[in-house]
Design goal:
about 160 residues; alpha/beta; OB fold (Dihydrolipoamide Acetyltransferase, E2P); five-stranded mixed barrel; 4 helices; about 35% strand
């Protein structure tokens, strides 16, 4: 009996130790934590999610404010964000996330969308239930607050 008591005590102590390591706030909402605040005045968190994480687990980000970076292109007449140009060129339409609603696009981004623009960061509400109108999609980003073209700083 003492042997089993020691095993159970060790188990519960180890669970408590691991539980203390789980962050309460993170940049991407890992371990069910809250995402970081969008601004100083905001109580809502924005999940800065790697595209791959959204691809693997879209339901985790459903109806959450996310910041996602990818390759933006007109696909079947709609603005769609892909993980990369290779994903788009490989006709992986189901990896695309459609951008819906009023889009705050500048002229440089609009002019480049037919060929594709990278890297584009989009901030908005992710809808994992949307599956596309004409082709299968991973989801949609709605209520978009910003779309920005990032400048890549060259290494020295």
């Amino acid at each position: 009996m003492k042997k089993y008591s020691c095993i159970l005590l060790t188990f519960f102590l180890s669970v408590d130790i691991f539980a203390q390591d789980i962050p309460k706030v993170s940049f991407d909402g890992r371990f069910g934590s809250q995402c970081i605040a969008f601004s100083r005045n905001s109580k809502e968190g924005v999940c800065i999610a790697p595209f791959q994480r959204v691809l693997v687990n879209p339901e985790k980000y459903n109806h959450k404010l996310i910041s996602l970076t990818g390759f933006l292109v007109n696909s079947f007449g709609r603005p769609v964000l892909f993980p990369s140009s290779e994903s788009y060129k490989s006709d992986m339409q189901f990896e695309g996330i459609e951008l819906m609603g009023k889009l705050p696009l500048d002229k440089k981004v609009m002019d480049g969308m037919d060929k594709g623009v990278f890297p584009i960061r989009v901030v908005g509400i992710f809808d994992a239930t949307y599956q596309g109108a004409d082709v299968f999609r991973l989801g949609a980003i709605k209520n978009i607050s910003s779309i920005t073209l990032h400048q890549i700083i060259p290494e020295r």
